[in-house]
Amino acid sequence: MAETEIPECITEHERILQEIESTDTACVGPTLRSIYDDQPNAHKRFMEKLDTRIRNHDREIEKMCNFHHQGFVDAITELLKVRADAEKLMGQVTDTNRRLQEAGNEVTAQTEEVIRCRIQQRNMATTVEKLQLCIPVLEMYSKLKEQLTSKRYYAALKTMEQLEKVYIPRVSQYRFCQIMAENLPKLREEIKDISMSDLKDFLESIRKHSDKVGETAIRQAQQHRTFLSTVAKQAGLDHYTKPVYSLNGRAHSHMSNGVLMEAGDEEDAEDEILTAQDLVDFSPVYRCLHIYTVLGDRETFENYYRKQRKKQARLVLQPQANMHETVEGYRRYFNQIVGFFVVEDHVLHATQGLVTRAFTDELWNMALSKIIAVLRTHSSYCDDPDLVLELKNLIVIFADTLQGYGFPVSRLFDLLFEVRDQYNETLLKKWALVFREIFETDNYSPIPVETEEEYKVVVSRFPFHDAEIEKQSFPKKLPMSQSVPQIYSQVKEFIYASLKFSESLHRSSTEIDDMLRKSTNLLLTRTLSSCLQNLIKKPHIGLTELVQIIINTTHLEQACRYLEEFITNITNVSPETVHTTRLYGLSTFKDARHAAEGEIYTKLNQKIDEFIQLADYEWCMAESDGRASGYLMDLINFLRSTFQVFTHLPNNNNDHASMSGKVAQTACMSACKHLSTSLMQMLLDSELKQISMGAIQQFNLDVIQCELFASSEPVPGFQGDTLQLAFIDLRQLLDLFMVWDWSTYLADYGQPNSKYLRVNPATALALLEKMKDTSKKNNIFSQFRKNDRDKQKLVETVVKQLRSLVNGMSS
């Protein structure tokens, strides 16, 4: 087994030695490691094999050196012989060269002289030829400098083009031409910068003076509209023609870099048709556009111009913070915007492609949105209708002016409807103050008329017609108070003021009629109605004033048809026209009358409560005074005098008579019911613990006076004993206690024909207990008297039965 392992180990060692000899020394490590990873003592056998291999290589090296040694010795010997011959040859060559040099020095000198002359001759000819090529280049460059100095930039650009394409290529090899060629782009940039500087000056100038351009354009539009209005009136036309402005005109003087020109005196300026080119020098724009076009950079110029104009548009559209305070603020704002777009319109038509219709439309749409937002915001701050009206006129002429230049302005006229609403709001606020002042200064008494002239003055201000009053002799009184003709006149003034806003809106008569009626309705239903409601609620307005207010609203209601006729006469629109808005004054004045009537009822009840508070009954008195209480007589006298006032209500026709009777009857019935309820509450007051029969008798006397008042017909129109029924509950309750008819009450309770049908068991029980307590207190020894004991037993029996009735009702 060991013998078979030795040959395998020797073979493996051979392989490792071959691998070491053929492999890079850096990779020997893994190979050597494999020796130590094999069988034990394998590295010793490998070392022996390695030593054997080294000895073999040493023998091969020694053999090779011995084989080549003799050839090397022979080669060295031959080299030493050649060195001696080479040194000899070198000496011969040096001597020959010396002799040759000495013989050719003279010939060389003469030859060099000839060559030098020939070179000079050739250089002179070349110089003359090149100078003939360079002189035109220098002349053109000098010409270029002169053109730049004289600011003839377009000619300078043409000269540069000739230099670059024709002259410089001929002599491009010379340094000065290279310098020229390098300078030409710089000169072009300089020309671009100069022209751009002129353009910036122009843009700055038109930004500062655009308001003058806009003012002129707006003045032309106003003159044109006035002219068309005159022609339309003469021709009997009722429509408006859109303005078209001339592009021809004559300028007073020219200017440089966009500086505004003088327009001469104002009279000449008004007679003259001035245009944008008359007021603004556009040559910097044309020049800059031409230069950039020649330089092939037109797109850059167009983008720059449009970008700058967009920035200027945003600046122009930015209003001053206090613009809404004065008309001049709005006028300056509109002038600047019109001036901006007039300039853009001129540039659009005078240049080809610098600005396009799409660009101007984009600018206008952006501006229009901003203008509408600004006007919507600032107009909301205006509380002066005159200022809002001036703003409307400015918006109209602003829209007409720009419409003449081809810009769509329909959104501005839509905005005017919002401004109209704002205008109406300011008018309503103003007229609310007017109405309040009229109501505050009114004396709420019929208008006295001393003479026919005074009567005619009143009738001229208010459409009042009454045949009976006209038959009366002077002096006489008209039923309404002084506020009625004043209110009517102010409503007409409001209609006139509202009509002013509708002028120049290019709307049909029907639309204007509709606007007037709607705004008038707002005045009647909101402003006047609110003022009337507030007036009625004021504490200092008494019953007399409330009655006069009812009279006034009646006459104002009758005058509404005259207001409709007034509007019809203004607009020439027939009231029978379809969709014509009607005035809502009828409902307004009816609501005010109802509120006044309700306030009459409330104030009457409050006055009754004041009298009731004066009542001072001695609830434990033995017997009555034999006459009604003083506070109640005063109350009845007050009611009598109060209902006399209702005779002043209008009764010149059946409608008014029925209305006045209804108000008086309702007020009287309300007063009687409230009085009856108050007296009943006084009897049943929880703080009142005891009531004597004498107090009941005194209370009965007061109720009798109330019944006598009701039966005396304080207000005509009641049928039978309708008014007395307001006290029926009190009457039956008092009769029950005065007669002490409990057997009848208890026997007939619940029957429809009961004598005491309106007496509630709970009410009777409460009052009976108050009287029961009084009997106990005043009759301490009543238990010793048989009659008193019987009566006491009867009361207790009645109380028990009443309680059973009350409990039965509650269950």
Task: Summarize the model shown.
The protein is mostly helical and 811 residues long.
What do you see in this structure?
The chain has 811 residues and is mainly alpha-helical. The chain folds into 4 domains: 34-153; 176-230 and 276-407; 427-445 and 481-602, Exocyst complex subunit Sec15 C-terminal domain, N-terminal subdomain (Tetracycline Repressor, domain 2, Orthogonal Bundle), CATH 1.10.357.30; 605-809, Up-down Bundle (Methane Monooxygenase Hydroxylase, Chain G, domain 1), CATH 1.20.58. Helices cover 74% and strands 1% of the residues. The protein contains 27 helices and 2 strands. It has helices at 2-22, 28-37, 42-149, 153-167, 175-235, 266-271, 276-279, 283-294, 298-317, 327-350, 357-379, 385-404, 410-441, 452-461, 467-471, 483-502, 509-537, 543-558, 560-571, 585-613, 630-645, 654-683, 693-711, 728-739, 742-748, 761-778, 786-810, and strands at residues 447-449, 476-478. A two-stranded antiparallel sheet has the order 1-2. Helix 5 (175-235) crosses helix 8 (283-294), helix 10 (327-350) packs parallel to helix 12 (385-404) and helix 21 (630-645) runs parallel beside helix 23. The longest helix is centred in the N-terminal third of the chain and has 108 residues, at 42-149. It comes from Oryzias melastigma.
